[in-house]
Amino acid sequence: MEPAFSLLTPSQTAALPLVFDSPHSGIHCPADFNTQVPVEFIKTGWDAFIDDIWQPVVEQGGYLLHAHFSRMYIDPNRAPTDIDPELLDTPWELCKPTKYSERGMGLIRRYALPGKPMYEKALTKQEIAHRISHYYSPYHQQLNQLLDDLYNQHQGVWHVDCHSMKSVGNGMNIDAGVARPDIILGDKDGTSANAEFVDVIAKAFTSKGYKVVKNTPYKGGYLVSNYADVAQNRHSVQIEINRALYMNEQAFEKSENYQTFKSDAAFVAKQLAAYVSAQIGQ
Fold it and tell me: How far is CA 219 from CA 108, 169, 189, 200, in A?
C-alpha cells in the first residue's frame, strides 16, 4: 500500500518550529477508489507540484509534510465527520456535513466537477472508515505530533498550510467564474495567526511583484482551524497560489515560469524562517 505521506526534515542543528504541510499535492488513487470518472477530472483537484515548490523550506530549517493520496479519494483539509449522508448506502451517526459537503466537496467528494458525480453507487461505512484509518488519520497524526513536539521544545510553533487554486473558480467554488489573484492568504480573518507572521508572507510575495489578498474568498480550511491557537503561540495560515503562475492548467504540466516561481517561493520561505528564528531567539 502506498504510504499516506512523506515528511521532509531539516538538519537538527538548523531545525525551526516552522511546519509547511501540503494536503492536496498527492495524486495516488488507491485500488478501492471505485470511481469511473476520467483521470483528467481527478487531476483538477490536484495541487500539482506544490510539495516541490515549497521543498526549499527544508533547507531553511523548516519541515515539509505532504500527502501522497488524492484529495478526491479523501480530503485531509476537511473535518473527519464532514461526510455527505447522500453518499452512503445506510445512515451513519458519524455524519455531520458542513458547507463543504453541501457543495459536494466534503471529506468524501460527491462530485468530481460541477454536475459530474464521483460515484455510480453508494459507499458503505466500512469503505469510508478504511480511508480515514489508512490515509486521513495517519496524515493528521503525523502533523499533530510534529506540531506538538516543536511547540514543547520552543513554546511556539508556526504552521503554513500550502495549496494551489485554479486561475478561475468553477461552479463548486464560492467564487465561481471569478478570476483569482496571484496569492490568497487565509488566517480566519486574523484569528488563526499573529498578524506579523502573515505580513511576512504578504510582504515577501509583494516584493517579488505578486498581487496578494487576505481572506477573500479563502479564509483557511479545517487544517488551519484545527491546529491554530494564537493565545498559546500556535499560528496557522493558509497559502493559495494561482496555478497559472507556474503551470499549464489544461495539460497539468510545469510552465516555462516554473523555476522562476519556485525561486520566488524559496525567498518567501527564507523570510519566514528568519522571522521564526527571531521569535525563538535563535
Answer: 21, 15, 7, 17
User: What DSSP line would sit under 45-98, residue for residue?
Assistant: T--TTHHHHTTHHHHTT-EEEEE-B-TTT--TTS-TT---GGGBSS--TT----
Query: Residue 246: pLDDT band by 50, 70, 90 thresholds?
Result: very high
- What pLDDT, in 10s, does the model give residues 191-242? 999 999 999 999 999 999 999 999 999 999 999 999 999 999 999 999 999 9
Largest CA distance in the chain: 56
Query: What CATH homologous superfamily does 5-77+126-279 map to?
Result: Zn-dependent exopeptidases (3.40.630.40)
Q: At what angle do helices 258-279 and 195-207 cross, to 10 degrees?
A: 150
Cell numbers linked to 165: 487554486
Q: In what order do the strands lie in the sheet with 212-214?
A: 5-8, 63-67, 18-22, 157-165, 234-242, 183-186, 212-214
Among residues 73, 95, 99, which one has the least CA distance to residue 85?
A: 95
Q: 3-class SS at 267?
A: helix
Give the closest residue to 118 by CA, choosing from 109, 128, 127. 109
Q: How far apart are the first and last CA of the chain?
A: 40
Query: Cα–Cα distance between 119 and 87 in angstroms, integer?
Result: 8
Q: Where are the beta strands (DSSP E) in the chain?
A: 5-8, 18-22, 63-67, 111-113, 116-117, 157-165, 183-186, 212-214, 234-242, 247-248, 253-254
Whole-angstrom distance, CA of residue 66 vs CA of residue 79 = 18
Q: Are 21 and 223 in contact (CB under 8 A)?
A: yes
Share of the chain above pLDDT 70, in %: 100
Residue 120: the pLDDT is 95
